[in-house]
Amino acid sequence: MTAADSDDDDLADLDPAAPAAGGDPAGPGDGDPGPRLMYPTVEAWVTDFLVVSYARDVTEPGTHHYWCSQWWKHPEALDRLDALWRAWEALRRDPTTGPATWWIHYADPTMTALLSPDGPFTRCRRAQHTSPGALVPPLPVNVGPEGLFPEG
Predict the structure, then answer these.
(1) Any residues with CB less than 8 A from the CB of 58 and at least 6 apart, and which?
(2) N or C: more exposed end of the chain, with fewer CB within 10 A?
(3) Entry pTM
């Protein structure tokens, strides 16, 4: 099994055709596939929900919020927004504290990090995307001593 196979298995948990997490605890074979995703992809969720619900002025000079219309080209943004979408899909099913939990513990810190002046979109302006790899190198890293990180 490769890392890619493992990632595919993880993504199956949120496949619109598969039962979503938090489904009926009776499990497979009971005929109930459980709750379905409201949005089939992170792109659909960002486009149809997030940018409307979390609107900020990102067009005026001097703004303290930065956004890129090509957000999916920023690895950090793609990872963070995918995690935010998955949390939203899970927490939307809790009609009591789910929405508040999502806003306070997931949306606010994630969007603060993404839109901040030192976030991944800081070099993008209006509709102009700037590749993050072109201007900012990855964080430096040294390989740890052999045996420090056992596999498995």
Answers:
(1) 65, 66, 67, 115, 126
(2) C
(3) 0.66
